Amino acid sequence: MLTVPNLWRSLILAIVVAARVGAQTPSDAEIRKILIDRIDKYENSVGMVVGVIGSGGRRIVSYGTFGVQDARPVGGDTLYEIGSITKVFTSVILAEMVERGEVALKDPVAKYLPAGVRVPQRGGKQITLYDLATHHSGLPRMPSDYSTNGPDDPYASYPEDKLYAFLSSYHLTRAIGAKFEYSNLGVALLGHALSRRAGKDYDSLVREHVLVPLGMSSTGYTLSSDL
After folding, report:
1. Which of 27, 182, 217, 221 is catalytic?
2. Contacts of 72 (CB under 8 A, 6+ apart)
3. Does the annotation mark 84 as catalytic?
4. For the packed helices 6-21 and 28-36, what is the interaxial angle rounded to 10 degrees?
5. Per the residue annotation, which of 42, 55, 84, 225 is the catalytic one?
């Protein structure tokens, strides 16, 4: 699972906070009160950090701890799993590979999978890279044969051979492109296909297209000794 400094995730919360109280950036005390309410009153989390970027520069507001049984206070250097925000990274990789002429949005994903894999079709239409990136492929949120060994690495028990077997046996229930349906499976398939096209693992693609260009030295799959 990708991890990033809490600042990244909390920028989203800061924007929401600003929208609630008006155009003016809320004060540190106002933000802290919201965090206290979310953690102590509503029990939405145990520790949250907000990063604010404005005309006065950058600042951090934090409240809470690492865990129910971990009293370390969170702060601007705290690492969090970002989960599905990683899907944005996948779309960035797709966009850059399109710009380089390495793939096209209208390419069928089957083009970048082994010849023996049958990607489901419907009405004579194939699932494209665009369909996967926009959640219009018709594929379900998760494969029906998915099971996890735990939250630390929930997809480790679902290797590519199981993915290929599921795709080859699945029948779409509606037309491709007909309806938006959020699909972890679809975006995972997109990342896998792009990795095969580039001849690199997904971790390397993220570093090449996102992390290194943006100087995101505290983000990655494998944490350095410092992190």
Report:
1. 182
2. 65, 66
3. yes
4. 100
5. 84
pLDDT, one tens digit for every residue, the chain (227 residues):
455 544 444 444 544 544 454 457 889 999 999 999 999 999 999 999 999 988 888 999 999 999 999 999 999 999 988 889 999 999 999 999 999 999 999 999 999 999 999 999 999 999 999 999 999 999 999 999 998 877 777 888 889 999 999 999 999 999 999 999 999 999 999 999 999 999 999 999 999 999 999 999 888 887 778 88
Q: Rounded to the nearest 5°, which phi and psi values hold at 69?
A: -115, 20
Residues listed for the chain: 227
What SS3 state is found at 57? strand
- What contacts 115, CB < 8 A, 6 or more positions away? none
Q: Report the alpha-carbon distance of residue 48 to residue 66 in Å, rounded.
A: 9
Side-chain-side CA neighbours of 77 within 13 Å: the count stands at 3
